[in-house]
Specification:
Distance between the termini: 65 Å
GO cellular component, one term: plasma membrane
Number of domains: 1
InterPro entries: GPCR_Rhodpsn, GPCR_Rhodpsn_7TM, Olfact_rcpt, Olfact_rcpt_6C-like
Keywords: Cell membrane, G-protein coupled receptor, Membrane, Olfaction, Receptor, Sensory transduction, Transducer, Transmembrane, Transmembrane helix
CATH class: Mainly Alpha
Order of helices and strands: EHHEHHHHEHHHHH
Main location: membrane
Number of strands: 3
Structural class: mainly alpha
Radius of gyration: 22 Å
CATH topology: Rhopdopsin 7-helix transmembrane proteins
Protein name: G-protein coupled receptors family 1 profile domain-containing protein
Length: about 325
Amino acid sequence: MLKNYSSTTEFYLLGFPGSKELRDILFATFFSFYLVTMVGNILIIVVVCVDKRLQTPMYFFLGHLSVLEMLTTTVTVPLMLWGLLLPGMQAISLTACCVQLYLYLSLGISEFILFAAMAVDRYVAVCNPLRYIIIMNSHTCLWVVVVSWVFGFLFEIWPVYATFHLTFCKSNVLDHFYCDRGQLFKLSCDNSFFTEFILFLMAVFVLFGSLIPTIVSYTYIISTILKIPSGSGRWKAFSTCASHFTCVVIGYSSCLFLYVKPKQTQAAEYNRVASLMVVVVNPFLNPFIFTLRNDKFIEVFRDAMKSCYRLLKA
């Protein structure tokens, strides 16, 4: 369909092939997931900002994580839903494809850095509680969040530039529901081995660079928890970390399978399933994981609902 690079003005997203009935089911499912994701994360942000009982580093990071989750899923899911409604393939311009890939990858990197920061925060809270307020002060927390955002958006400039500097001459059909980098490499006629290898090293650097502080932090956390004599004390200490640990396991496992591979090109079905975990399932689960297992958040949320009920009743 394409002759050379200059004629590549748009791509066509194949999305989810199948019957109209299947596409309608997928639309209803993914739309429900997206709606719950947005509402859940908005509630977290509002409650964290409004209630003074949640003005702590852990909830400060959780609020920013919710913002990242909302942006990550919004970058990809609405276009995916629109493609499920329309017959045939979904067109996306070259510029829009570039912007979507850049935002998606940048937000993902910022999220991994924030996960590492939250792990260190839990380490200080469990292993050094007397100095927690001093170490995790407001200046430090703000600095960590700013660094996570800035690093994520600066780090992906060259990878995205290198990807769209390729010559796309094989086709302009992407066998995916968003502008996936692996599928873009499949359309290239250039020898992209060196570029793919550099991107692989960069992915390893980001994922393992943020995973190592998490592993070290939880090693010390588990060691400290095991030394607590009472069972109730051990459970209380563990409960403060359980939500974050669960999200880390789910988030890293899906991204390791998706990005840490020397060859960026991969089976379309494999990429689609792994991508759905990253952009649909994980953002959907995280609000529940962080709230339903958090007694303090549930207490604050219950009080907020009672206050709203009294205002409406008055």
